[in-house]
């Protein structure tokens, strides 16, 4: 069997022989560079579109600024990894960055104008 194909055994036949099936585990080919670029652009648009919601000075404002700082740091790391050719790390970092933005928007730390295309919002 090739590296992309798994063989599994299930049950026993009447003659005592195992019934076998071949399950294809081949995954579709993805243009990782294009995906990284798309996600970086999406996250940059989201960073530009949001506003920190809680007023100064408040504890929630500090939390919102921390979320924003984390998102920016991960976005910068993603660009670094992209430029270094480490696309898997770039993709992980940019999606983690956007996760900070989504979480902040969802719990009300960021005002996003109801933009469900850039952010994952609750109903």
What does this structure look like?
Helices cover 51% and strands 15% of the residues. The protein is an alpha+beta fold and 123 residues long. The protein has a domain of 80 residues: AF1782-like (Substrate Binding Domain Of Dnak, Chain:A, Domain 2). A hairpin with a 5-residue loop joins strand 1 and strand 2. The model has no long low-confidence stretch (mean pLDDT 87).
CATH superfamily of the domain at 32-111, by name, is AF1782-like
Outline type:
elongated
The parts where pLDDT drops under 50 for at least 5 residues are none
- Rg (C-alpha, Å): 22 Å
| Secondary-structure element series | EEHEHHE
Biggest pleated-sheet summary: 2 strands, antiparallel
Per DSSP, what share of the residues sits in E-state strands of 2 or more residues? 15-25%
What is the mean pLDDT?
A: 87
Distance between the termini: 47 Å
Q: Do you know the CATH topology of the domain at 32-111?
A: Substrate Binding Domain Of Dnak, Chain:A, Domain 2
Strand numbers in spatial order across the main sheet: 1-2
Secondary structure class reads alpha+beta
Helical residue percent band: 40-55%
């Amino acid at each position: 069997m090739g590296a992309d194909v798994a063989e599994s055994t299930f049950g026993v036949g009447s003659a005592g022989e195992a019934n076998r099936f071949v399950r294809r585990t081949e995954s579709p080919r993805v243009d990782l560079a294009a995906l990284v670029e798309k996600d970086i652009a999406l996250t940059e648009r989201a960073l530009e579109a949001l506003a920190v919601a809680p007023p100064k000075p408040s504890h929630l404002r500090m939390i919102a600024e921390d979320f924003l700082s984390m998102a920016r740091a991960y976005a910068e790391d993603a660009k670094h990894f992209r430029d270094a050719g480490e696309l898997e790390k770039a993709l992980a970092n940019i999606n983690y960055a956007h996760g900070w933005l989504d979480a902040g928007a969802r719990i009300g730390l960021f005002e996003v104008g109801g933009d469900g295309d850039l952010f994952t919002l609750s109903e």
